[in-house]
Amino acid sequence: MSDKTKKKIDSKPIKDLAKILDDLKLTEISYTDGDFSVSVSKGAVSWTNNIMPSQAKTNEAENNDTDYKNDPRAIKSPMVGTVYLQPEPGANKFVEIGSQIKSGQVLLIIEAMKTMNPIESSLQGKIVKILVENEQAVEFGQPLMLIG
Predict the structure, then answer these.
(1) Dihedral class, residue 98 (left if φ above 0, else alpha if ψ from -120 to 50, else beta)
(2) Model pLDDT for residues 98-122, shown as the tens digit of each residue
(3) What domains can you pick out in the chain, each with its CATH number?
(4) Global pTM?
């Protein structure tokens, strides 16, 4: 590889994002400017140029979330973290599609900053749709489940 084809990576945006990540106690942060994009998360850094097929799927998933953000049946994430649909590995899930739910019943756990936070239902009814997968990272306000 000649010097002309080598691309120098500017580490300043990564360091800036890492500082913001720590200052705001986030687990993941992304920045995009034109065709330059960088994401920093605890333990990982990724770079992308232009839109890749995997990003098209992500945009589609984000559009699905947007459909449920104002849905009165949605249980939304009260924090950024990692979802666990069962109390421990190998155990039964807290709820399944079709489960009858009472207000105050634990639906799932969100791990944030090494703390397990049980997420309780504010609604009564039946689980219509589960919008997240086990061990998926979630954002504040992201719809998690629909109860009808």
Answers:
(1) left
(2) 999 999 999 999 999 889 999 999 8
(3) 12-49 (no CATH), 72-147 (2.40.50.100)
(4) 0.55
